[in-house]
Amino acid sequence: MRLNDDWHSLNEEIVTCRACPRLVVWREQVAREKRKAYRDWDYWGKPVPGFGDPQARLFIVGLAPGAHGSNRTGRMFTGDSSGDTLFGSLYRTGFASQPAASRRGDGLTLHDAFITAIGRCAPPGNKPTAAELTACRPFLAREWRLMPQVRVLVALGQMAFDWSLRMLRDEGYEVPRLKFGHGVHYQLESLHLLGTYHPSRQNTQTGRLTLEMIDDVFGQARALLE
User: Fold this and answer.
1) What is the CATH number of the domain that holds 9?
2) Which of 44, 51, 62, 126 has the fewest CB atoms inside 10 Å of its own CB, making it the most exposed?
3) Closest CA to 219 of 189, 165, 181, 183
4) pLDDT tens track for 11-69
5) How many structural domains are present in the chain?
6) Between the CA of residue 217 and those of 18, 22, 77, 114, 221, what are the distances in Å?
7) Per the confidence metrics, is the pTM higher than 0.90?
């Protein structure tokens, strides 16, 4: 019961956070004005908490909610092309119950996986500032502390990789200077750290990240856990 209370308290703090004025203005403006394709939606328009199995051994860290993705649906990586790529790969590697995520309550569950981000509010131009990410940093650390069973961390993109390293150092891991790249694998004590290019449309449509490439990373995560 205490663990459930801790998660509930943390998620309430995330959802009600108004620490960064620029982000508050932007996320609420987007939620009011909406995109034409989603004009009938009641946008979430708030910070987005982590999503998945709190007993998971796989911890996935992204950058921040998309303006018309998570900022609309209220669930990490749900409702945009990045999520389509990510959840498709998680499904193919056995971490998700279905290959698509459209909204909260769509039946999607994660198996032995948890998805979070270094930033919790949709930032203008998909570019949070260092100060904004610093303000969000305690949320990531608190999720991490509630999940001592994690054995594999997958960072989606260089910023998620770099800020995950900061979090791990703060949590007492001996972390040397590590270089980001797609498919990198580092072992830090009992933790395996993997990196992949972010599953953004910019990367998938240009061929910088293919389905085979992201499947290789999550396939490696699966193998490490087994």
Assistant:
1) 3.40.470.10
2) 126
3) 183
4) 999 999 999 999 999 999 999 999 999 999 999 999 999 999 999 999 999 999 999 99
5) 1
6) 35, 34, 18, 16, 6
7) yes
